[in-house]
Amino acid sequence: MALLIKKKVPVRAYSALLLSTLCWGLAPVATRYLLISFTPLQLVLIRFVIAALFFLPLLTPLRRFHWSVKKVSWVVFCGVAGVIGYNVPVAYGLRVIPSSLAGLLIASEPIWILLIAAFVLREKITWTMVIGLLLSVLGITVLFGQAYVDATWNMRNFAGALLILLAAFMWAMYTVSVRRLSKEVGARTATALTMIVGTFPLLTWWDSHTWSLLRYLSGAAWIALVLLTVGSTVAATILWNYGVAYTTSSQASIFLYLIPLISIIGGTLFLHEHTSILTLLSGLLILGGIALGQLVRPGRAKN
User: EamA domain: which residues (predicted)?
Assistant: First the structure.
């Protein structure tokens, strides 16, 4: 309560956080829909080449940045992890599993972040983190358990789910790694720089035929593409950075729990996907584990 009185959060900050989570929650839905028209590599290439053009103006502060071989290597690592390491597995995974399931598996990112921070950065592991991790692992196990109880599952579904988990792990790697760069050049500039650098390796898959496919997209496909490229990749990041500037980490993190819910609703409404009771149960376990793992113990400062 004292935090709320001390720091009044403007409505536009909450609106920005809500819009960003809406874009991120619908990203798996838009991706799965567009994979009807593109291959995974084609879609990732188009998405990030367009997004890179919007990110270019955010690189202005780098004129005063002092480069070194170590910093360049770090930027390249972050870019490859955030763009290729995350988005390529997601695109391939969504070819074979529903966007609702993908949204739940992507929601495991905070748990991976906690583990990486603990083992790589030597951050202290609390008992709430351990219990939260176990709950989330149980939820993921329930999801994979559908391979044995749901006749629609097969090895391709299983491999697709593993790809989504790999993507969540790579995004956690990016999140932990980009923190140092964000402190030096600012969050927006660091995001723009790493996204642009991560786009360059995608150009090796450049194919003139890819861009000709844009002429045959339907109106709905164009909406999905704009949502994915401009909305999810560019606008959502900027809106999120704006929102977190006026809130605490704990206040902002609450909005992240809406992402899998939005993915489930979006997949049901726009892709007519079926969500089973097991999926909902596993989702509750994963989200409950994430929430518990992020609890701040009394007496610890909040960011």
Answer: 13-144, 160-292
- 3-state SS track over 246-268: CCCHHHHHHHHCHHHHHHHHHHH
In a domain, 224, yes or no: yes
**How far is residue 75's CA from residue 163's CA, in Å, rounded to a whole number?**
24
Q: For residues 188 and 18, give the distance between their C-alpha atoms in angstroms, rounded to a whole number.
A: 18
Classify residue 35 by its DSSP letter: T
Q: What total of structural domains would you count in the chain?
A: 1
User: Has residue 188 been placed in a domain?
Assistant: yes
- Find the DSSP H helices in the chain: 2-6, 11-34, 40-55, 69-79, 86-93, 99-106, 109-119, 127-149, 155-185, 187-199, 208-212, 219-226, 236-244, 249-256, 258-270, 277-293
Q: How far apart are CA 78 and CA 285, in angstroms?
A: 30
pLDDT in tens, 154-205: 667 778 889 999 999 998 899 888 888 888 888 888 889 999 999 999 998 8
CA 151 – CA 231 distance, rounded (Å): 36
In a domain, 58, yes or no: yes
Structural domain for 63, as ranges: 9-293
- Judge whether 111 lies within some domain: yes
